[in-house]
Amino acid sequence: MSSIVSIIQFMAGGYLVIMLLLFVFQGHLLYFPGAAGRDLSPTPAAIGLEYEDVTLRTVDGIDIHGWFLPADNARGALLFLHGNAGNISHRLDSLLIFHDLGLAVFIIDYRGYGRSKGKPSEQGTSLDAEAAWQYLVDERGISADDIVVFGRSLGAAVAAHLAAVRQPGALVVESGFTSVPDMAAAQYPFFPIRWLCRFQYNTERYLQLVSCPLLVIHSPDDEIVPFRFGRRIFEAAGQPKQFLEIRGNHNDGFLVSGSLYVDGLDSFLTGLPKKYSSRSAQSLR
To answer: Which residues are catalytic?
Structure first.
């Protein structure tokens, strides 16, 4: 009997240790700046795109780095908020797609990523996105109506939050999850993970507050963020909204889908109700 009790105690102790580790090291499980660290190679120049290095300072005093890619006769500006792994140099395929769609693009690295200073956090990523927004509006003089906020994966939550507190011309949410507790519960079903979560990133709630045109993009083949989460955030959002179902996994769906993805984005942009203003034309170049 004593051996059985010892086994139970050992298992209970191990369970508690794992819960403690999940609680303490959540940030390491959520943010992956990557082995590349500060290295930003290749740059957009490697694929023939003109770009400018931009450094911003957030309201809490953190220096954030990004690239601004101008476009001739642009149909608007796209603010690109990337996922939780790697840095802006890993998004060249997307930058080329957006450029070919006639968009000027501003992509930033969150604090702690690439050449951005600081340490990533939920509040911090929101402040980083806000600083990028203010740069486009205040420094470059681009009208809010001419800005499309785009977020992929973790960036989808950051983008949805930004669009909820600002009024962009449109919002695109790609491979987005409902919330971190939902994602964690799906990955760790044997732990009371919702009680342990220190992060929220509640995309589902943010989208209920968004009033601009919305495009939700997701693949049934996504092996990281379940397709049902993409459908849930779409259902939570108000009109006007569209859903684009693509193919491929979490990280390459936009490439595997090819013209399905590009044509879907183009159709959404073409159908936006507001015309891009002449006030922004020079700023996009």
So the answer is: 153, 222, 250
